[in-house]
Design brief:
Radius of gyration: 28 Å
Distance between the termini: 66 Å
Mean pLDDT: 95
CATH architecture of one domain: 3-Layer(aba) Sandwich
Number of helices: 31
Strand content: 5-15%
CATH topology of one domain: Aspartate Aminotransferase, domain 2
Bound molecules: pyridoxal-5'-phosphate
Low-confidence stretches: none
Largest sheet: 7 strands, mixed
Shape: globular
Helix content: 25-40%
Length: about 950
């Protein structure tokens, strides 16, 4: 009888090629064995000596049981804490069809519009929703959280304000975590944060901008049109952080004159998740749209003049403008923005208003009941939050509330804050009354009078667009969500061979726990003992990540890779400050670096010095040495990526670290390529001081169509004191709104580590390297592979050079990328880090069959190019120039010099399961010239349908 090794079985989930296929792939690469291949690929002096000792890998069932036991250690109470986080109900139809649906959560960021029309439409709905709620003209497609969105608003205010003052005013009613992140962001840029009462302390002439909270953290609702007018008089910018549910009842910020609105869409159906992920929003006036950070979806046309969506104004972003970019935001919160937009589609304007009214009614009932009990309740006008004066009884009442199953908020030493939400029911109100010493308060069915401030009641309409008035029968809703996801190409259909953005399996067993209420419904500010499960999970995952990276501590606070870069560079800056080295501000960055690197360095007040690359694509060590010497006195850091963004393990990485340290600088190693290192080499051993890890790349958190992500940082011991601090304190040092970033998706990465075990993780790395080398070997016959290591091996990705074909056949990288869509593939990373090339990363998850299908498609494309080169096919009218082909192309006359068959069914495409892009090639320039960033009017839909 054969005994199967459960360890091997667990690995079969994540590792695509079978043992036999691994043998065939090795042969194609000309390598003796996996170990021999790795020896030829990684320089010997960086190899890790001890294997990862994570104990026995868990089977799927054991892993789920472990997650269950951990979840059960979180005690789930009703949290009426507020402070930017609210109970909400994700409609089950959205939970199953979007949140738990791989067609949505395994998609990549929508950089290739032809295969992203579904999520682009959902994001356009999101932008329309935000514009309508805030009363502003243009919104982006989400930011990371409310606190960082507020910081982005401050940065934007600085860019667009006529005032050249260096102070920013912050309403004392702002959320503490927002104030903390604003302080952190302002410090390295030399801006002063002034916290105060907008009606007493604001001196408009002394600031470049101000932020107001609406409603305030303790419930007060102020008409800030006066302060806003005063700011405008002084050439300063006004931003308002507003609750989007309150905005269904209250006058929107735009009508009060605000230039920018920010906030969190969390309470639009996205669970609190112990702090995240949620989508933040940001909107502004038309005049400032080009200064708006983050991704913006816009409307354009395709090659046939039909409506098509795509990302607009890309030229403002880091990959183009580097340190002059509008911000470092790359991964944002697409999946959560999609959920929030669907929540609005699901409820419609009247449904949203009904929810807001019910919330308000419950708050009024509570205020009246507590007043009857003899307490002084503030403020006189509120939406969902009240503050109760409890004198010396604060501790007793808070404790009694917990005993009654409810968390309330401690305010100062003698008050208690209560925030009700969509999930508040009469029994919860009863529990609160009991905590305050009341009993048997009769439930009053009568509708109490509203307590919204007279002059601030909303009169303007919102969500008038037909999409928010569709027939909301569940069959219709389900089909709408299905239709949109069918337009997109995600990992559940085909390989997404994106260089740098590791798109690997997001295993179902890893995804299950994030739906559990014990993880998803925990408020981030609950007492420690109610989040014991989270603390255990975060502790063990941190330990494992330390073992994997060779660092001494991990901070889970950064909620994207770019945020991790920012947090890491900030730690370096603070380290230098602590040693009296304030003058160390120069950051060396190779020309090949990801655009977020220079953008993050700039946010830390550093000046970027670019280091060149040598002929082989490696960091030019001599140039690096020269520049380190030149800036020796002022050297703060270098930022390197390893293996390099060129997909090569550079042999002189230790030397680069040593040079940096010799000149007093610190080494930031961008860990986005950790999928090539885990179990084989550790950044901390190579000589780096700090790195971010993209858990949404290497550690299986799905990309969500462009977020969520997690970018925790690992640091060496000397940087531990400078890690991000707790945002709740309101003090400088926090980088995002919640202590552990997007904590609720950490079970995914933890399950992955537990199910793989140390051996499995290292094996995954080896196979990832094998798969890339296999692709390089197969495609190398037809295309130049741009870079390789000293022994001819690539790391976990490879760059295919298409530049020669521009001359020989008039074919561009875009033509090849779009032609791959006809074969049913998501195109690889285009023109980065080298213009005119494709960067391909297969990952360990893809089977040999899928990799071969991709290679077949690429090789067939080479033959199509050859036909053009040899004059057999027209240079302007050929399958590449006309790609991608849609069903529309099939009907009517066909007057092309190639057959329908050749156009629509190239090598690699499936007959039965053929993916049809919903639009032809999208015209990007047209969309930027005619900028439309919200749902087009219904008439234009009719026109398009004709
Ligand atoms: C993906 C990536 C980043 C940025 O990560 P985000 O999560 O998108 O902010 C930084 N550097 C490299 C090399 C990357 O591939």
């Amino acid at each position: 009888m054969t005994h199967y090794d459960p360890y091997d079985f667990a690995n079969r989930r994540h590792i695509g090629p079978t043992v036999a296929e691994i043998g065939q792939m090795l042969e194609a690469c000309g390598a003796e064995s996996l170990d021999a291949l790795v020896d030829e690929t990684l320089p010997p002096d960086i190899r890790q000596t001890a294997p990862l000792a994570f104990g026995k890998p868990l089977t799927e069932r054991r892993a789920i049981e472990t997650m269950r036991a951990t979840a059960d250690k979180n005690r789930l109470l009703v949290s009426l804490i507020g402070q930017g986080y609210h109970g909400t109900t994700m409609p089950p139809a959205i939970q199953r069809n979007i949140f738990e649906n791989p067609a949505w959560y395994t998609a990549y960021s929508p950089y290739q519009p032809e295969i992203s029309q579904g999520r682009l439409e959902a994001l356009l709905n999101f932008q329309t929703l935000v514009c309508d709620l805030t009363g502003l003209d243009v919104a982006n497609a989400s930011l990371l959280d409310e606190a960082t969105a507020a910081a982005e608003a401050m940065g934007m205010a600085r860019r667009v304000a006529a005032s050249k003052q260096d102070a920013f005013f912050v309403d004392r009613d702002c959320l503490p975590q927002t104030i903390a992140v604003l302080r952190t962001r302002a410090a390295p840029l030399g801006w002063r944060i002034v916290v105060g009462d907008p009606f007493r302390d604001l001196d408009p002439a002394s600031v470049f901008g101000a932020l107001f909270q609406y409603p305030g953290v303790n419930g007060a609702i102020h008409d800030v049109s006066g302060p806003i007018a005063a700011l405008h008089g002084a050439g300063a910018i006004a931003a308002v952080a507003a609750d989007p549910l309150a905005l269904t009842l209250l006058k929107p910020p735009g009508e009060m004159g605000a230039d920018i609105a920010v906030g969190s869409m969390q309470r639009y159906g996205v669970p609190m998740g112990f702090g995240g992920p949620h989508a933040a929003y940001m909107a502004t006036r038309d005049a400032h749209k080009r200064a708006l950070p983050g991704r913006i979806v816009g409307v354009s046309v395709d090659a046939h003049g039909n409506r098509a969506y795509r990302l607009a104004l890309q030229t403002r972003e880091q990959h183009i403008r580097r340190e002059k970019a509008t911000s470092n935001i790359c991964t944002s919160q697409v999946l959560l923005a999609v959920i929030a937009s669907m929540y609005a589609v699901y409820h419609g304007p009247m449904g949203l208003k009904a929810i807001a009214q019910r919330v308000h009614r419950d708050a009024v009932r509570l205020a009246d009941g507590l007043t009857d009990l003899g307490f002084r309740v503030e403020p006189a006008h509120f939406f969902d939050t009240i503050t109760v004066d409890v004198g010396p009884f604060q501790g007793v009442i808070l404790q009694s509330a917990v005993e009654n199953g409810v968390n309330l908020r401690k305010v100062g030493e003698d008050r208690i804050g209560i925030t009700v939400d969509e999930r508040t029911r009469p029994d919860i109100l009863q529990a609160v009354w009991r905590a305050f010493g009341g009993h048997d308060v009769p439930h009053d069915e009568a509708w109490p009078e509203q307590r919204l401030p007279e002059g601030l009641v909303r009169t303007s309409p919102y969500l008038t667009h037909p999409i928010f008035h569709m027939n909301r029968a569940e069959s219709e809703m389900t089909r709408y969500m299905r239709r949109l996801s069918d337009r997109d190409l995600a990992l559940d259909r085909a390989m997404i061979p994106l260089g740098s953005c590791t798109m690997k399996l997001n295993a179902t067993a890893e995804m299950l726990p994030i739906s559990w209420p014990e993880f998803s419904e925990v408020h981030p500010h609950v007492p420690m003992d109610q989040a014991a499960g989270y603390h255990e999970l975060i502790g063990d995952l941190s330990e494992k990540l330390c073992a994997i990276t060779g660092y001494d501590a991990i901070s889970m606070q950064p909620n994207s890779g770019a945020q991790g870069e920012y947090a890491g560079l900030l730690a370096i800056r603070r380290y230098h400050l602590s040693r009296g080295d304030a003058h160390r501000t120069v950051c060396l960055i190779p020309s090949s670096a990801h655009g977020t690197n220079p953008a993050s360095a700039q946010m830390c007040g550093m000046s970027v010095v670019v280091v060149g690359a040598d002929r082989n694509g490696n960091v030019d060590v001599e140039d690096f040495r020269r520049k380190a010497e030149l800036h020796s006195e002022k050297l703060a850091a270098c930022m390197i990526t390893y293996p390099s963004t060129h997909g090569v393990f550079e042999t002189r990485v230790r030397e680069i670290c040593a040079i940096t340290h010799f000149h007093g600088g610190q080494v930031y190693l961008d860990g986005a390529n950790l999928n090539a290192l885990v179990g084989l080499a550790r950044p901390g051993d190579i000589g780096a001081d700090v790195s971010h890890l993209n858990l949404h790349k290497t550690f299986c958190i799905p990309h969500g169509g462009g977020g969520p992500g997690m970018g925790p940082i690992g640091v060496k011991a000397h940087l531990i004191p400078f890690l991000p601090s707790d945002p709740r304190t309101g003090e400088e040092g926090a980088v995002s709104g919640s202590a552990y970033g997007s904590a609720s998706i950490l079970p995914i990465s933890w399950s992955y580590c537990l199910m793989m075990g140390g051996k499995g993780l290292a094996q995954a790395t080896r196979v990832a390297i094998l798969s890339a080398n296999y692709i390089a070997a197969r495609l190398g016959q037809a295309y130049p592979i741009l870079y390789a290591g000293e022994r001819g091996r690539v790391a976990h990705e490879c760059i295919v050079d298409l530049r020669p074909f521009q001359k020989s056949a008039g074919i561009t990288v875009e033509d090849v990328a779009k032609r791959l869509i006809d074969s049913g593939f998501h195109p690889p990373t285009m023109s980065w880090p080298v213009a005119g090339t494709l960067m391909i990363e297969p990952t360990e998850s893809e089977t040999k069959g899928e990799i071969d299908r991709f290679c077949d498609a690429m090789l067939a494309i080479r033959e199509e190019i050859r036909a053009i080169e040899e004059g057999r096919v027209d240079r302007a009218d050929n399958p590449l120039k006309n790609a991608p082909h849609t069903v529309q192309d099939l009907v009517g006359a066909w007057e092309r010099p190639y057959s329908r068959e050749a156009g629509c069914f190239p090598a690699g495409s499936f007959r039965t399961d053929k993916y049809w892009p919903p639009v032809n090639r999208v015209d990007n320039a047209y969309g930027d010239r005619n900028l439309v960033c919200s749902c087009p009017p219904p008439e234009s839909y009719e026109a398009a349908a004709e």
